[in-house]
Each structure stands twice: as structure tokens, then as C-alpha cells.
Write a structure and sequence with these properties.
By secondary structure, this protein is mainly beta. Helix content is 15%, strand content 52%. The chain is built from 9 helices and 18 strands. It has an 18-stranded mixed sheet that branches. A hairpin with a 4-residue loop joins strand 7 and strand 8. About 5% of the residues have low confidence.
């Protein structure tokens, strides 16, 4: 507690001699405010006693099942915990995660290897984040992680939903007509990933099955991600909508690039309205074509962009009466 500012407790610990090790009611609290940060309803670790007694540690444990995880973080109340953890990590005066190029050995330069000694099944996960801009709740119904040794990669899949509530500080910056429409956003998603032992070549698929508010919804959208030699790439998967997006992040150089290609892309082919919003109805029929690129240095925040394309504006947007009234 003195180092991290966190207090860890649990309700019960009950090992079953032959098969399962159980722990219930795990809770991690802010030691000063007593506000819960993490709670786990129960965790079961299945094992084979005979293998354990014979010294086969690798083969003794078969599955870890964790149920009822709740992670709470309020940036306005619990920031001291993060600050204390960051201070602890940097207490040596250097970033403990970094090794200077002159100090790196051949072993240090070798890529990390990821593997699991047993399968992991995580059920009923709730992540709650809140600050002065938004209140976000992400709930996972089920997350399964397994090590497919025969095929040489780690497999993960899961699904869930999210709710994003924008705070007044954000809503006040939006046109009044849109504030109610975007205040409360619901998202249904699923994902699957294949993680290779050395990370390079690892891939992931992410699908937004539904993104909706009281007034609009977005068409189903899928993304594909890949990691290779310090580069993370995420792109939309081709569908019926003439829009392609790709974001590429170089983790070593801290460089972010975003590309967009459109061919007579109509935003309303992606955005579906449940009621007419005059502000948005004025731009219905607008189409966008061309290639667009944005680059950002995430350390210095220096940026650059390039745009080659055009926008077709509908007749009603260019009418004299609308221009006099303003957009």
C-alpha cells in the first residue's frame, strides 16, 4: 500500500485438493479514499494434482476461469493512484521499460515471446471510465484466450457492448440541434485475434455490429488490424460502401498516419437517421471523392496533411435561401 496506494483484500480462499483452486471476493481499493478500483467475484484455477506432485508444472494447470470483473476509474477522484504508480515506475530516475541502445544486448533485442500455460476464460467483465468529458462503460459477455500450440499462436475472441455518455463540457461545444442526438451512444461489438509468439504477424478483427443513439445509427463496420516490427496497422474491411480508411502507427518513431480513399462516398450511406434533423438534412446528397492523408508526430504534436479530391454539394445546400439563413 505504501508504494502503490492500493489495498488488496479477498473474502475466501478454498483449494479443492484434487482439482480446483478457488478464490472469491477479490477487491482492490484506493488506500486513501477507500474507493474500489478493481473487484473480481471469483476465480477458479483447474489443475491435476498428480501432474503437480510429479513436478510437471507446465502440464498441471489446465484452465483459469475468472468471473465478475469490475474495473472502475474516475479520473477526477482516483488520479492519485495512477500518479503514484507512474512515480513508482520512474523512481530509479529512468524509464524502467526502456534500455538505451548502448546497453542493449543481443538477448535484449530479441522480440518478446508470448505463450500461455493454460486456457483462460473471462466472463462478465465491466470496465468503467469517467472524466470531465465522458462517462464510458464497456461490458464483455465473454472473453476466451487459449494457446493453440499445434498451430503456434495465441487465440482470443470475445463480444460485448459499450455505452458512452458525453458530459456537458463536450455537448456545449456542439450545435444545439445535435446535443441530444449524440449525448448517449450505444455500441455492440465483437473481436477475435491471433497472437503469434514473437508478436510480428499478429492479427485481429474487430466488428462494430451496432453504433446508435436516440436519433441515428451507423451501418455495420468491420476493421482488420496487424502488428509487424513495431508498426500497428488498422483498416476498414471492404464492403458495399465506397470508403476505405487506414491508420498506421509506428510505435518506435511515434508517427501516426491516417489514409482515406473515397469514391462518391455519401455519408448518409453510413449514417442512418431515425428522425429528421434540419442541420443534417441540409447536407443530404453530399458526396466525397479522392485521397486524403494526415500525419502526426505524437511526441511533438507536429502534423501535416495532403488532400486530392473533391466534394459534390447538393442543390439545396447552395440555394440562396439556405445560405442566407446559414448552415
Amino acid at each position: 500500500e505504501s508504494k502503490t496506494g492500493l489495498v488488496v483484500s479477498y473474502d475466501s480462499l478454498s483449494p479443492a485438493i484434487l482439482s480446483v483452486f478457488r478464490i472469491k471476493g477479490i477487491e482492490v481499493c484506493d488506500g486513501e479514499t477507500k474507493i474500489p478500483v478493481l473487484s473480481i467475484r471469483k476465480a477458479n484455477l483447474s489443475y491435476n494434482l498428480l501432474r503437480l506432485l510429479s513436478g510437471d508444472i507446465q502440464g498441471a494447470f489446465s484452465k483459469l476461469t475468472i468471473s465478475g470483473i469490475t474495473l472502475e476509474y474516475d479520473a477526477m477522484k482516483s488520479s492519485r493512484v495512477v500518479e503514484k504508480l507512474m512515480t513508482l515506475l520512474s523512481s530509479s530516475g529512468e524509464n524502467p521499460l526502456e534500455i538505451s541502445s548502448t546497453e542493449k544486448t543481443a538477448e535484449d533485442k530479441a522480440p518478446a515471446s508470448i505463450s500461455l500455460p493454460f486456457a483462460i476464460d473471462i466472463r462478465d467483465v465491466n470496465l468503467h471510465y469517467r472524466d470531465n468529458l465522458m462517462d464510458v462503460l464497456v461490458s464483455f459477455n465473454d472473453i476466451a484466450v487459449s494457446d493453440t500450440a499445434s498451430q503456434g499462436f495465441l487465440s482470443a475472441q470475445g463480444n460485448g457492448l459499450s455505452r458512452v455518455i458525453l458530459q456537458e463540457a463536450v455537448l456545449a461545444s456542439l450545435p444545439l440541434e445535435l446535443q441530444k442526438s449524440v449525448k448517449d451512444i450505444s455500441i455492440i461489438f465483437s473481436f477475435e485475434a491471433s497472437i503469434l509468439p514473437q508478436l510480428d504477424g499478429s492479427t485481429a478483427g474487430f466488428t462494430l455490429a451496432s453504433v446508435s443513439t436516440t436519433d441515428f445509427s451507423l451501418a455495420r463496420t468491420s476493421f482488420f488490424g496487424e502488428y509487424n516490427q513495431g508498426n500497428v496497422t488498422v483498416s476498414t474491411m471492404q464492403g458495399n460502401i465506397p470508403l476505405w480508411l487506414m491508420a498506421e502507427m509506428n510505435l518506435d518513431a511515434s508517427q501516426l498516419q491516417v489514409h482515406a480513399q473515397m469514391d462518391e462516398f455519401d455519408p448518409f450511406s453510413l449514417l442512418r437517421m431515425r428522425r429528421e434533423i434540419p442541420l443534417l438534412e441540409k447536407i443530404r446528397g453530399t458526396t466525397i471523392s479522392g485521397n486524403y492523408e494526415f500525419q502526426l508526430d505524437t511526441k511533438s504534436l507536429a502534423f501535416d496533411y495532403e488532400a486530392v479530391g473533391g466534394i459534390f454539394l447538393p442543390e439545396q445546400l447552395l440555394s440562396v435561401d439556405l445560405l442566407k439563413g446559414g448552415l
